[in-house]
Automatic annotation (TrEMBL):
Residues annotated to bind Mg(2+): 12, 200
Gene Ontology MF terms: ditrans,polycis-polyprenyl diphosphate synthase [(2E,6E)-farnesyl diphosphate specific] activity; magnesium ion binding
Main function: Catalyzes the condensation of isopentenyl diphosphate (IPP) with allylic pyrophosphates generating different type of terpenoids.
Pfam families: Prenyltransf
InterPro entries given in the database record: UPP_synth-like, UPP_synth-like_CS, UPP_synth-like_sf
Binding site for substrate: 13-17, 25, 29, 57-59, 61, 63, 181, 187-189
Protein name: Isoprenyl transferase
Length: 249
């Protein structure tokens, strides 16, 4: 089987990684952010076309305010670095989630990142920031209702899986083929609930700051050994639900 076209990652375990070294949680986040850079390069080398990483969830605001503040600062400096990396490595960066709750400076840097990289043709890299799947779905429902009210959707029959997908933050991005969660927990934590409908799930105990190119290769190997099935059909026998949609449309 080929390499997965789209890999989504729940990068978890920064805090525990730091704690096991008797370091503050924030140190784990700093090392975690540096590792995002490493894994972007690894994914690109391996021929993965889309990589989506969960950086901050809509639930993460409930953390201690000091941790939230230092994470926001880190995201800002990370975004600045990412602007340079996107240029050097031809990466196209997009942001999913609701940016409106982020501070104005961070929002401006994110806009610069998206804008400055939009014509790049290498790895498609999605940053999930203040992202929550339920929030994304609710926002998509609101957009759909608005489009109906405006008259750009004329009848309820025009609301389909395809039209709804196009209202999500991931419009134009194929669904993930493989989801990886690091650090041992086996849950989705409100990540890409719609988009992961048919993804293969891979969990590893390795905490995110230690997750290396070798670990990514191992996850891809496990993925390649699996037989993907879509509603009773093996992959390859027939288009996946998404492929079928793309080919139809
Ligand atoms: C993941 O690491 C990073 C974010 C959610 C921002 P955690 O901060 O969740 O680390 P653990 O799970 O507490 O070890
Ligand atoms: C999920 O990790 C969110 C991100 C990786 C950004 P958490 O560590 O916040 O998830 P829970 O709280 O363990 O489910
Ligand atoms: Mg965690």
């Amino acid at each position: 089987m080929d390499v997965p076209r789209h890999v989504a990652i729940i990068l978890d375990g920064n805090g525990r990684w730091a704690k096991s070294r008797r370091m503050p949680r924030n140190y784990g986040h700093v090392r975690g952010a540096a590792n995002v850079e490493t894994i972007c390069r690894a994914a690109d080398d391996m021929g993965i076309q889309y990589l989506t990483v969960y950086l901050f969830s809509t639930e993460n605001w409930r953390r201690n305010p000091e941790e939230v503040t230092s994470l926001m600062k880190l995201f800002h400096s990370y975004t600045r670095t990412c602007i340079r990396q996107a240029r050097e490595n031809n990466m196209r960066c997009r942001v999913i989630g609701d940016p409106t709750a982020l501070d104005a400076q961070l929002q401006a840097s994110l806009r610069e990142l998206v804008e400055s990289s939009k014509n790049n043709t290498g790895l498609n890299f999605q940053l999930a920031l203040n992202y929550g799947s339920r929030d994304e779905i609710v926002r998509a429902v609101r957009r759909t209702a608005q489009a109906y009210r405006d008259g750009s959707i004329h009848s309820l029959d025009e609301i389909t899986e395809e039209s709804f997908s196009a209202m999500l933050d991931t419009a134009d991005i194929p669904d993930p083929d493989l989801l990886i969660r690091t650090a041992g927990e086996q849950r989705l934590s409100n990540y890409l609930l719609w988009q992961l409908a048919y993804a293969e799930l891979y969990f590893t105990d390795v905490p995110w700051p230690d997750f290396s190119k070798k670990d990514l290769e191992k996850a891809v190997e496990v993925y390649q050994q699996r037989t993907r099935r879509f509603g009773g059909l093996n992959a390859g026998e027939e288009d996946s639900p998404q492929e079928a949609r793309l080919h139809k449309g």
